[in-house]
Amino acid sequence: MPNLSARSTAIVFLLVAFQFASNALGQQSPSGRPPMLVTWFGPGGIALPDPAQGWKPEMLTVYDNITRPVAQYAKGDSGITVSFIIFENGSGKPDAQGCRNDAIDPIVKNEGKSISKRVDGELKNTSGETLATTSYLLDMGSGHHQHDLFGFAGNAKTCAEIHVSTVVETQDEQMQALVADFRPDLGYRPNSFDYFILGSLLFKNSPGLAAPYYKSALDTMPQDPRLLTPRRFATTQLIRSLALSGDLKNSRAVAENAIAADPDYPINYYNLARADAEEGNASPARVHLQQAFDRRANLVKGDSMPDPSKDDSILKLKKNQEFWRFVLSLPRD
Fold first, then answer.
1. What's the CA gap between 191 and 24, in Å, rounded?
2. Do domains 30-180 and 247-329 have the same CATH topology?
3. What is the model's pLDDT at position 19?
4. What top-level class would CATH report for the domain 247-329?
5. What SS3 class is residue 273?
């Protein structure tokens, strides 16, 4: 399962750089704030729990054609699992009850024979807002049951959900307390920093799921020279996300647009060479690799050119002897 805290050194560096620049531009990215769970296309956000407070991240993914991001945590060693989901309100009802119906009805349809003691109700969270709730028992077989408690907040556009579950029968009070502490911000407007973080967290294990988040990061990123490095990195990550998900057409299109917008940056040409290699085209791959290495002096300070002889995409052309001799002749940093 993806670990929410897993980040490469490069991503950590860029997040810090991005946060510094975002603060300078007035974007909301306070130091030390937990990531916000957001969709890539609409308003609303859920501040994810801080692992330093005993929350153990277990899963981060996006369901339903990349429209419903979900983060799952274990609450210490209590045996309680908590998941958070934010999604567009498609119920036709602009309230928490509509969101509850949208989420619970499909579960009941699929698991109805295993569900018992369902109770729908309401609960005030610690901010005084009313959440719609559902609780039930889910038959796990052999006389065992999973206890499930859901809380929903919603308006005309956005639904936010918390789902608390356990197989321990004596934890009702703790489960209620966790739901009461659920305070999503349905009016939150995600910024490029939020999208960038979530895309980076998704990328390692699910690059295809990261692509729309990187695109939204770029779409909402101010055109300011202080954000040039994060923009370049987010662009590269978007290109890689699309390529790794098999969308070579759009991966190439993003690379070509990046060259048009930022013609001095060598990685833009390198990314296009990778797209060429994925498509089996040695001649343009050679041209774009040469263009990339001709511009290597324009790398971000402290960075270095990738080694194409160890690149999975470039390696697909290794059987082309002339091309491979050229690859091996390129300078190494």
1. 14
2. no
3. 54
4. mainly alpha
5. helix
pLDDT score, position 64? 95
Q: What is the CATH number of domain 30-180?
A: 3.40.1000
Q: Where are the domains of the chain?
A: 30-180, 247-329
Residue 320 tokens read as 């082309």
For the whole model, what pTM was predicted? 0.89
Provide the CB-side half-sphere exposure for 218 (13 A, CA): 19
How far apart (Å, rounded) are the C-alpha atoms in residues 228 and 303? 15
**What average pLDDT values come out for the chain (333 residues) when binned by 10 residues?**
38 48 48 82 96 91 97 91 97 97 95 94 97 96 93 98 90 93 97 91 93 97 88 94 94 97 96 96 98 95 91 97 98 83
For 135, the token pair is 């609780």
